[in-house]
Every structure is written in C-alpha cells, then in structure tokens.
Amino acid sequence: MKYWLMKSEPDVFSIDQLKSKKKSGWDGVRNYQARNFMRDEMKLGDIVLFYHSSCEIPGVAGLAKVSRESHPDPSQFDPKSEYYDPKSTLDNPRWFMVEVEFVEKFEDVITLKMLKEKKELENMPVVQKGSRLSINPVSEKEYKTILQMRLG
DNA sequence: GCCAACGTTGGC
DNA sequence: GCCAACGTTGGC
Asked: Beta carbon of A86 within 7 Å of strand B?
C-alpha cells in the first residue's frame, strides 16, 4: 500500500465533485512523469491526498483511494476534448490514468501554509518552490503527519 | 496579473 | 543530441 498526493484545480475538478460522483477517472494528465506513476505504480487501494492547487486556499482538501488501476485516458481520443492528443491511437495510447474513489472531505483544508510549517514535511515536493509535478508519492510518515493535522 | 521554475518542442 | 524558445504550472 502506497500513498500519493494528486493536485487538481478545484475550478476544474474539486473534492466536492468527487464526493458527488463517488468515483472518477483522473483524466487530463499530460506529463510523462505523472503518467508513469499512474501507469506503473499506483495500485488498487492506494491512498490519495486530494490537493487543491491554483486557488484561493491551496492545500489538501480530503482523501481518495485508487479504485481502478491503469487504463488509457479516453480524453486523448476525443477531438472535442481539450486533452485530445492527435498522436495517440487506440492501438498505441500515450496517456494512462487511474480511477479514484471518494473517501473523505476534510472539515477544513490543510493549507499549504500549514504544510510548510511542519518540519516533518519539508521534503515533500509540494512545499518546495517551483515544484509542478501533479502526482507525487508520499511517505507513510508524511501521510500520518498530515492526517493528524486534520483534526486539530 | 506577475513571474520563477521547469517541461516540451523543434531547428540545427 | 544540443539548447533556445516557448508554454504551462502554481504560489503569491
């Protein structure tokens, strides 16, 4: 069992939307490193910290879990989608995604500011300047630290 | 809206 | 294969 942090802009897809849909394919990722995590490493039952980025209060908004492992992201085949990739074919898809299932919405967002104040979390890419990768592995220790912050 | 960081593209 | 130009991310 592994832990992950996945960024999403709440204007595009928020924890509330996941809560009402219950499950959702994590589509639209067009970065090879992030794709490789989804394609190769994210397994059924892995826990996801759902992070809201590019918004008023960036931070961890809740929890999800992997409910289906790697499969091709359908948006790459859809010419009407903003994620359409003309170089992708059904026989040779370029982009893969996992499906995630809602677990919990935190009562209050654990803000980036709070994450930055924790010495234990200083190695997380999300607290570091210029880190843009939208999917990152999280250590068990980091995960537990963040979970404890949710209640206080 | 600004801008630093960084990934991708494409000419050579 | 190099690297400048360009585009995107994301905090502020």
From this structure: no
Rounded to whole angstroms, the distance from the CA of residue A25 to the C1' of nucleotide C7 is: 26
Nucleotides in chain C near protein beta carbons (<7 Å): 8-12
| Full residue range of the structural domain in which residue A120 is found | 3-150
What span, in angstroms and rounded, lies between the C-alpha atoms of A76 and A94? 8
Query: Could you give the number of structural domains in chain A?
Result: 1
- Kindly report the backbone phi and psi dihedral angles of residue A24, in degrees, each rounded to the nearest multiple of 5, phi listed first: -155, 140
Instruction: Summarize pLDDT for A87-103 with one digit per residue, the tens.
Output: 888 888 999 999 999 99
> Could you give the 3-state DSSP secondary structure of residue A135?
strand
Q: A30 φ, ψ to 5°? A: -130, 45
pTM exceeding the 0.85 threshold for the entire prediction: yes
Q: Which residue is nearest nucleotide B5, judged by alpha carbon to C1' distance?
A: A130
